[in-house]
């Protein structure tokens, strides 16, 4: 192989790769057009082959080192740079994408919330009219502890916080994913879960109210409920989105409607998971802690809810104005 002729033929590629790398290293991969990104990847493979050939031929160490530097820089930008962009995309989604998805699907979330509140109202009404109704919804052991011992049951969490927190997370995630998956029943199972959970919280709230334990009970619920309940409502909204795709695809074909509304539902799921993880940690470690004053628990719960509302109202358009 004529080394000088080979170098002259290959050198324009090395110079072009150097030019692209300088731009990427200064401004990131986003500074390149799609064709230039493909060119960058092609040049990286080409220069890697040149490096392998240079090592097997009588080529100066300086040239080998230069080619080694080029391929290392290109690898870093193509692979590690793409990972940075993936993380940036995740951060961008949680910063702007999730609030936008919540705003776009608000009618479905509101419908899920309304079903939950309806269940709670029905349970409250029937529990006050007929105390035996409580035994249909609330476990008998819980009823007897509140009525007979005038105690709440949350003290059992103290001392086993890590186990309790993980169990709470798993339970809440299973309920939420069940509500999302309920969309494939045309939303019927999703509606059932919303109403049932509303019945449960309404019945328990009435039980503690009848026995003068409402203040400590809601102090326990407020800190984690500020995130847990909205997450369940988001899950219900995601389920109803899938139900709409099946029942009322509109101008779309049913398969296309499932893709469109399914993508919105998935975005809500990405918001539900971190909310329930945080809520589970709070419910396991903070909410039942007897050393935390009850008024502080109320303040934390209200503060978290206000932060969540503010987050859900975020908008790039509003910020730009």
Can you walk me through this structure?
The protein is mainly alpha-helical and 321 residues long. It has twelve helices and no strands.
Q: How would a textbook summarize the main sheet?
A: none
- What is the molecular shape? elongated
* Overall pLDDT confidence: 85
Number of helices: 12
Radius of gyration: 29 Å
Order of helices and strands: HHHHHHHHHHHH
Tell me the total number of β-strands.
0
SS content category = mainly alpha
Helix content: over 70%
* Uncertain stretches: none
| Strand fraction | under 5%
Spatial gap, N to C terminus: 64 Å
What are the key terms here?
elongated; 321 residues; mainly alpha
List the helices and strands and how they pair.
Elements: H1 3-27, H2 34-56, H3 61-104, H4 106-129, H5 134-137, H6 140-149, H7 161-181, H8 188-210, H9 214-247, H10 254-286, H11 294-312, H12 316-320
Helix pairs in contact: 1-2, 1-3, 2-3, 3-10, 4-8, 4-9, 7-8, 7-9, 7-10, 8-9, 9-10, 9-11
Short summary:
By secondary structure, this protein is mainly alpha-helical. The chain is 83% helix and 0% strand.
């Amino acid at each position: 192989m004529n080394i000088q002729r080979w170098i002259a033929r290959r050198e324009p590629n090395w110079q072009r790769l150097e030019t692209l790398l300088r731009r990427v290293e200064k401004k990131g991969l986003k500074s390149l057009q799609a064709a230039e990104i493909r060119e960058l990847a092609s040049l990286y493979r080409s220069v890697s082959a040149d490096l392998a050939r240079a090592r097997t031929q009588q080529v100066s160490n300086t040239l080998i080192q230069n080619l080694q530097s080029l391929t290392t820089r290109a690898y870093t930008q193509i692979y590690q740079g793409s990972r940075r962009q993936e993380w940036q995309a995740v951060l961008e989604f949680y910063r702007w994408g999730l609030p936008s998805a919540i705003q776009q699907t608000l009618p479905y979330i509101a419908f899920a919330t309304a079903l939950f509140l309806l269940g709670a109202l029905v349970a409250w009404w029937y529990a006050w009219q007929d105390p035996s109704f409580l035994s249909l919804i609330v476990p008998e052991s819980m009823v007897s502890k509140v009525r007979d011992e005038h105690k709440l049951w949350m003290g059992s969490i103290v001392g086993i916080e890590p186990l309790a927190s993980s169990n709470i997370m798993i339970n809440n995630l299973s309920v939420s994913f069940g509500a999302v998956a309920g969309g494939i029943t045309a939303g019927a199972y999703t509606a059932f879960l919303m109403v049932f959970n509303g019945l449960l919280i309404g019945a328990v709230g009435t039980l503690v109210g009848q026995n003068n334990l409402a203040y400590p009970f809601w102090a326990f619920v407020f800190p984690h409920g500020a995130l847990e309940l909205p997450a369940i409502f988001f899950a219900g909204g995601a389920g109803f989105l899938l139900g709409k795709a099946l029942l009322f695809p509109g101008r779309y074909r049913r398969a296309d409607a499932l893709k469109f509304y399914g993508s919105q539902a998935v975005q809500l799921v990405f918001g539900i998971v971190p909310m329930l993880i945080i809520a589970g940690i709070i419910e396991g470690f903070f909410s039942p802690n007897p050393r935390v004053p009850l008024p502080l628990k109320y303040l934390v719960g209200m503060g978290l809810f206000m932060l969540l509302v503010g987050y859900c109202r975020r908008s790039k358009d509003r910020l730009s104005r």
